[in-house]
Amino acid sequence: MGFIRLLLAIAVLNSHFTVVPLPLVHGHEAVLGFFAISGFYMALILDTRYESSRHFYLSRFLTLYPVYVFALALSVALVVSFDIHPMTSRAELSMLLSDPVSFLVMAWTSLCIFGQELLFCLSPASGGGLHFAVDARDSIWRQAPLIQGWSLSLEIMFYALAPLLVRLRSRTLIGLACASLALKLAAPLTGAENAVFFKRFFPTEFWLFAGGILAYRFHKLLAAAPRAVDHATFAALTATVLLAGLTPEPAKPYLMPCVTLAAMPFVFRGFRHSTADRFVGKLSYPFYLTHFSVIAFFETCVDSPEGWDILLVSLAAALAVHALFEPGTEMLKRRLRARRTTLAADPLVLRARA
């Protein structure tokens, strides 16, 4: 799934600055596809790599937080030193942060990641502080140092629950996924004034993570050897990413994640031993976190920025960040995986399990 993950990240960039004149999936729906993939991969690593929930949590921290802090520091440095930000200016940001409540909310969500989706629902109140925003255009998400970090908040909520979720029976997971999907379908009935809140609400997106876990369980039932259907499914999934923009508006929040959930078991089987695909997939996260800063730099410093230049520089930045952090984090994660192997071979552990 590595190539698909990077393609989805490029689709997010394309939503922020047009690179290719294709009807690519919109950035928000691309993120929903990431949620489905996350459910699949978390079920995979909990099943095969880590002995305890603590090791899983440490692994997720090592994967997410160091690169996130680097991207956050880069964005803050650009706006403070050069007044470069994709959505706001240094003066507007300073005005927002002069309010103590806004400062605390922005500092907490930026440093801890958790709760960043709420920035789309909050706007400055006339007498100070914050209040609920009906329109996202009035909210403070535009002043966030790392705007796309909201999706990581939902990922963290899923990670917190993942060790429990993978132990649930499939029928229970299906029931929870159906309840989540029903809530998502019913959310528009609560009124347009709640649309901003429900668009990034973990319970309405939980069906994607649960669906990913179920897709992994289906994958385990398949024959291990790759089949021709795997590559055909990969082609269909790639075409969906490239052409999903043609989908009727009501179906857009569901097409990309549903096709991803259906295709993952086969695409993963077909490419699971591909070193190149695995490497490309690892670039998707630093690409996702740094691309908005690259766009802001080009829009500020280049008279007529070209989409392909932004794409190439974003890829170069992702490669640099990957090279900077991957060796250290991978070494630490290998130690956690080795701990699982050591415990699994311990006679006391084997007797306890028996």
Which shape, going by the Cα principal axes? globular
Mean pLDDT: 92
**Structural class of the secondary structure composition?**
mainly alpha
**What is the count of distinct domains?**
1
- The H/E string reads HHHHHEEHHHHHHHHH
Low-confidence stretches: none
Number of continuous helical runs? 14
What is the strand arrangement across the widest sheet? Answer: 1-2
Q: Percentage of helical residues?
A: over 70%
- SS strand fraction: under 5%
* Total beta-strand segments: 2
Between the first and last Cα atoms, what is the distance in angstroms? 36 Å
Biggest sheet architecture? 2 strands, antiparallel
Please state the CA-atom Rg, rounded to the nearest Å: 21 Å
Question: What does the model show?
Answer:
- This protein has 354 residues and is mostly helical.
- The chain has one domain.
- The protein is built from 14 helices and 2 strands, in the order αααααββααααααααα.
- Strands 1-2 form a two-stranded antiparallel sheet.
- The chain starts with a helix and ends with a helix.
- The model has no long low-confidence stretch (mean pLDDT 92).
